[in-house]
Specification:
Blueprint: H1 3-30, E1 36-39, H2 43-49, H3 64-74, E2 79-85, E3 88-97, E4 103-111, H4 119-134, E5 138-142, H5 147-155, E6 159-161, E7 166-170
Parallel strand pairs: 4-5
Antiparallel strand pairs: 1-2, 2-3, 3-4, 5-7, 6-7
Length: 172
């Protein structure tokens, strides 16, 4: 990467990090669940993730720390969110704006197998806030893991699009 490209990438990272922090603040203000908070992904998130990383009831086997570093480098406009109840990590989510920049896609979302809190509802607050700050007209959850998860997303107001294998919800 040339010096010019690196400066551009760093400027994008700085600008969009400000928007990510703003969306997390907006979501935290809207929370109605005691002792629950959202944050950006950081080292504390990874340490907490290690407590459930090898849990036998995990539905996916994403390596969040490794995936995160790759996303951080390649997607400076990314969405990121860690959800907490007290000092217990409930889950992670990350995504990025669509290629046409009209939407915000949620590529990865995982709830701790030990958590009972409504992770999607909590994450959606930050996702919606970030999408709004970007001027997006919709959010999409990419590649639901199975029909039950897809049905759950649909119960939350998303519509399944078979062509893109995503659940889409318009922003009003």
């Amino acid at each position: 990467m040339t010096g010019y490209q690196l400066r551009m990438r760093n400027e994008l990272e700085r600008r969009y990090n400000h928007l990510r922090m703003q969306s997390i603040q907006m979501a935290n203000q809207a929370l109605r669940t005691p002792d629950v908070r959202l944050s950006l992904v950081d080292n504390a998130s990874y340490r907490a993730f290690e407590q459930w990383q090898n849990h036998p009831n995990r539905k996916v086997d994403w390596n969040w720390p490794t995936s995160w570093h790759s996303w951080k480098i390649h997607y400076p406009k990314r969405f990121e969110c860690a959800t907490w109840q007290g000092n217990k990590l409930i889950g992670f989510a990350m995504g990025r704006p669509t290629y046409q920049a009209t939407g915000l896609r949620l590529d990865y979302i995982e709830k701790s197998p030990k958590a009972s809190e409504p992770h999607l509802d909590l994450t959606y607050l930050a996702l919606y806030a970030y999408a709004t700050l970007l001027g997006a007209t919709h959010v999409k959850i990419m590649s639901p893991i199975n029909k039950d998860v897809r049905d759950y997303y649909e119960s939350k107001g998303f519509k399944y699009d078979q062509k893109s294998d995503s659940c889409i919800r318009r922003i009003i």
